[in-house]
Amino acid sequence: MNQIIPPSFAFRFAFPVPRADGIPRRGKRLLDLGEEHRIFRPGADFTAAQAQVDVRCGWNEAGLGFAVEVHGKQHPPVSNPDRPDETDGFQLWIHTRSARTIHRANRLCHFFCVLPNGGGDDGLQPFVRQLPVPRASEDAALFPHETFQAATETLDDGYRLEFWLPAETLNGFDPDDSPQLGFYWMLRDSELGDVCLSVDAAFPFASDPSLWETLELAGVARE
């Protein structure tokens, strides 16, 4: 039976994110986040689709870090930094408050496109591009790609992408007073298709923060 409304739309999810001191690190593994940092994907748990994307998150006062593993590919991703929201890559929305009642983004809402390649002189380096949230009533400040850190690694059937968002690029980021953040992600892949955190592109999650889920910044500092 066809479902007009996906089951995940009936729920709102809050994902606890353990604190991770000592990140970002130097080298190819900026984060190296463990299983306790994994964010489950409601869209996979409520449907027959197999989850092929592993997303993990860690935080400290200096910012937010994400690790993304993509599996099930037979060909390498091809990213175009001139069209970051239309090309192979990981798209992330962050609201530094958890306000699920607003339907238009404000200056506390952020949109990042993280590409596994397309950057650097050789076009093989990962690349973070910040864009305005569509239909926002007020835009957050936009930072150049040099502000962010990213690293990528080729896997047998996909790739691993790690990136770091410094606190200064997240307007309103205040873990002590506002530990709950609005949060949504989508993987765009020309081979696998679009993979979303919960609801799919039939819903306007790209511009409507009320459809985003919640990150809860919590946990004990670790070495």
Give an overview in words:
This protein has a single domain (11-218), classed as Immunoglobulin-like, CATH 2.60.40.1190. It has one helix at 42-45; strands at 14-18, 38-39, 53-60, 63-70, 89-95, 109-119, 125-131, 149-155, 158-166, 180-188, 195-196, 213-218. It is globular. It is mainly β and 223 residues long. Mean pLDDT is 88; it is low at 45-51. Strands 1, 5, 6, 7, 10, 11 and 12 form a 7-stranded mixed beta sheet that branches. Strands 2-3-4-9-8 form a 5-stranded antiparallel beta sheet, with no helix packed on it.
SSE topology:
Elements: E1 14-18, E2 38-39, H1 42-45, E3 53-60, E4 63-70, E5 89-95, E6 109-119, E7 125-131, E8 149-155, E9 158-166, E10 180-188, E11 195-196, E12 213-218
Parallel strand pairs: 1-12
Antiparallel strand pairs: 2-3, 3-4, 4-9, 5-6, 5-10, 6-7, 8-9, 10-11, 10-12
